[in-house]
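Teaching assistant here, posting this on the class forum so everyone can see the example we discussed in section. The complex has two components, and the goal was to see what a joint structure prediction looks like when all of them are supplied at once.
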Amino acid sequence: MSLYSSSVKRPVTTILIFVAVVILGLFSLQKLPIDLYPDIDTNTIMVMTSYSGASAEDIEQNVTRPLENSLNSVEHLKHITSSSKENISIVTLEFEYGYDIDVLTNNVRDKLNMVSSMLPDNANTPIIFKFSSDMIPIVLLSAQAHESVPGLYKILDENVANSLARVDGVGSVSIMGAPKREVHVYIDPLKLEAYHLSIETIAQLIGAENRNIPGGTFDIGSETYALRVQGEFEDPREIANIVVGASNGAAIHLSDVARVDDSLEERAQETFTNGVRGAMIIVQKQSGANSVEISNQIQKQLPHIQKNLPADIKLDYIVDTSDNIRNTIASLVETVLFALLFVVIVVFFFLGRWRATVIIVLTIPISLIASFIYLYASGNSLNMVSLSALSISIGMVVDDAIVVLENVTTHIERGADPKQAAVHGTNEVAISVIASTLTLIAVFFPLTLITGMTGVFFRQLGWMVTIMMIISTTAALSLTPMLCSKMLRLKRTENKYFTKFYGPIEKVLDKLDDGFAWLLTHCVRHRWITSLVVLGVFVASMFLMKFVGSEFFPTMDNSRLGINLELPIGTRVEVAKDVSERLYKEWTEKYPEIKVFNYTVGQASSDNTFGSMQSNGSHIISMNLRLVNPSERDRSITEIAGLMREDLKHYPELKKALVNVGGQRGGGMTGQSALNYEIYGFDFEKTDSVAQQLKRILENVKGAADINISRSDYQPEYQVDFDREKLALYGLNLSTAATYIRNRINGNTASYFREDGDEYDIKVMYDPEHRQSLQDIENITLYNAMGNGIKLKEVGKVVERFTPPTIERKDRERIITVSTVVQDRPMSEVIADAQPEIDKLDLPSGVIIELSGSYENQQESFSDMGVLAVLIIILVYIVMAAQFESFTYPAIIMSSIMFAFSGIVLILLLTGTNLNMMSMIGAIMLIGIVVKNGIVLIDYITLNRERGMSVRRAVIDGGKSRLRPVLMTSLTTILGMVPMAVGTGEGAEMWRPMGIAVIGGLTFSTVLTLLFVPTMYTIFAYNGIKRTRKKLHKSQAKQAKKQTEEV
Amino acid sequence: MKAIFISFDQAYYERIIEMLYKSGCRGFTAFNDVVGRGSNTGDPHYGTHAWPSLVQGILTVVEAARVDTVLEKLHEMDLATPKLGLRAFVWNIEKSI
């Protein structure tokens, strides 16, 4: 028994099965985590090898190259990049997407084992480090403080960091910009020398004095007591009173040669939020934890935490990544609901019956909700991709139900009992319903096969739509006939008001039918002219293609700007602070859109994991700006970024200035497109000069902003050149001498001061005023084993030198990257403008320039898409050819795909949208959607012919009677996409090109398909008739000839 | 005893069975999913792509007195929904067991 007859016969079972599906779906929905993207597996492994004392070039030769050579053979490797700097080599392996990172890590480890014997003896064992998206902080909090600044670190560490770290799923909480307490013992070198003391002795003494030592146990009478010496300092002031030596019989106290300063560490990052000094609290999640969940928990905790803080400390959000997720999801949910509303309106408009509308619309929630079961079962999340899959499908899941309902209605109108009509009506269209679903699956299923970064996006889209289509077809073949048999009536009771309301609509629709029939009659009569005109339109539109710009992914407006500024190397932190303050004042005035303005200056201390991972230094300023939500401002994030770039040009002290939309620089999917020109070549000087020339070229190209050369300048520094012979003469060796210098300038951690369970460093070093000039360095006294003091200038010289910068390599060759961000212009145009100039460059031998970055990704993905499109077209052709059992009809139907592409080109031009991955995906979806129209038309025309109509009548009658179903299914899809195409919510930028492409392509192709496909059919049908007639004539002539011969 | 052969669009099936039962004709033999075409008007019932509807036939042997009522009721049905198609033919039963 067939699906539909059993479901009509067993309505209770049918309805309960679908109720069960809906309940399961809602249950899954409740359990689904919310995220921005589907899980993206990491594909990067870093190998870090330290080799202390080696210069950048040594590291490159002895560590990086052997490592690269052996790691290069790891399979699935896409690129191998490395940077070699003093003391350390970092090799980064980028793999193709879609492979198990654990397996890859093991392969890398095997290779490392093989190569380790070839590394220098003193090099440490290479460390493997997996980079993952979990390391991106999910929440950045700012803590503004006034009076509490000195104790800020302790307060935040105890009250904020500790309680946040207890939240489920939080990986680590670090505090940036709050300096830690440190006890400094600032030595006056002159006095020290006068008393014949050294820093080392003092440090040792402090360490020796600051001790608690147990003295064992002893018995008094019948009791046993412990004996202890409690010598640890209880107050840092006590340190000043310790005796450090004796002179002429009098004790020398520490206070005689030094001052004790209980304050904060000297070099620390300072963070300012909205102009107020404070700290930044960085929350990172555990891998696999749900950001939205964590952020909800943090939001709940914050008021409690705030209550326990001193009154002057104010906690606030700088970045909450889940904000963006929540807003994006909310705006997509809105899109889905609007799409639903539009589809309901279209269905009601065409059918004019509420019962029928209800039956059809019911398939939408069922198929959509059922897809949540898939998401939950496959461990996915509710994200941008899955939600937009819902939005895309809304218009398509009703199509099957519409076809079934329409046919059942015809049967009922012919007089059949609804129950019988439901079974037989469904039976008639079941095959073509399944066939048209198969064409859609032929489109969406291959999407699940895409690999690479784009695959992450489209795999889920493909699965979701495929599943929804299967469910909607199942529902159309079981639930819809069942509901038809129960709800449709033979005789409709006409409501007076309803007739008044729907009457005019019906008249319009009737007129539309007649008008179309008239037009079609003319087209068929002048079929050659029609086909030439229509083909002409297609060819012309393809010529317009070159005016459409292209890019990889649209830039998303997530209200975040990251700005990295660099002053010349070695600039004091005070200068950096001054520049930041001026920028803060200028920008907060100019851009009222800025909600939070946070910047950090200074060198990160080494025990700050997050801080030390980013580039930092006294000359570097990093800013984090949060704008108000996109809907609350007129200027887009790219506009503001563009203006800021202009502003930064008025700061000549800045050496580099990068404004990054979305918080991080290009490359990814959400920021502005970035072009990376990679200059390969061994010689530093040659490649440097090419890089400079390239930079000048790009500066003159409109749309190229933020041009950056990756290789930094030679860094100036002072080096002490010891004369080894003299050192030996004084009984010193190089490392002892170097340690003396380090202890005096950087300081010697003598001991720890303990208070309330916390430890603070006690550092002994020169007073700041005695380490401010070269003379101060030259006058450092070194002591030999005999205790004789020798001035540094007697055994060595202080000279200024430049150290070579980090050596970067990619695919085993030295490289400099000149990168630029594309602004206000399609990426393709910027490349087209820059390329001729670059070709004119006279490159030295051995130097090549290659283009990568977003461009490389775009090229790869576009060609993937091209292959996919061909595959899909072939699959769709096969499905149709099987359905019609013909080679010609599918070919005629496929012509509607051409018009879809023309429509896309036209609408992209009209709306000024670029061709990107999203509009490409729209185009690919259209392949399946537009052939559906053709299938419906040709199916009915052949039906008419089989029923014995003449070609022309079959075509005109078929066209007229199929006009409404075609318009209806097309309109549901088009209007279902409208909310996506005009959406202004957060994340809307991403899907807008797809919505626009589908709307343009489908509208254009529907109109032309309705005219062109019947016309082409006529041409082919007449040719077919002519051929059969010719054959007939021939065989008749042959027979006649035979007969005459016989006679 | 007379035999009535009713040939009709399958949509009629349940209605006809019910009618026969109410008219006191319990026994029948039905032929499911058969094809056919009317002599003058109406669409063919071929179960093909072009003519998807199918015919069903019922052969029932009833007492001669009931034939007229049955035929009358069948005719009513046909007049109510002429597009579906329904015809009935009667002949004599010579012998039976």
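For the discussion questions: The beta strands of chain B are 2-9, 29-34, 55-62, 86-92. The mean pLDDT of chain B is 89. Think about how each of these relates to the inputs above.
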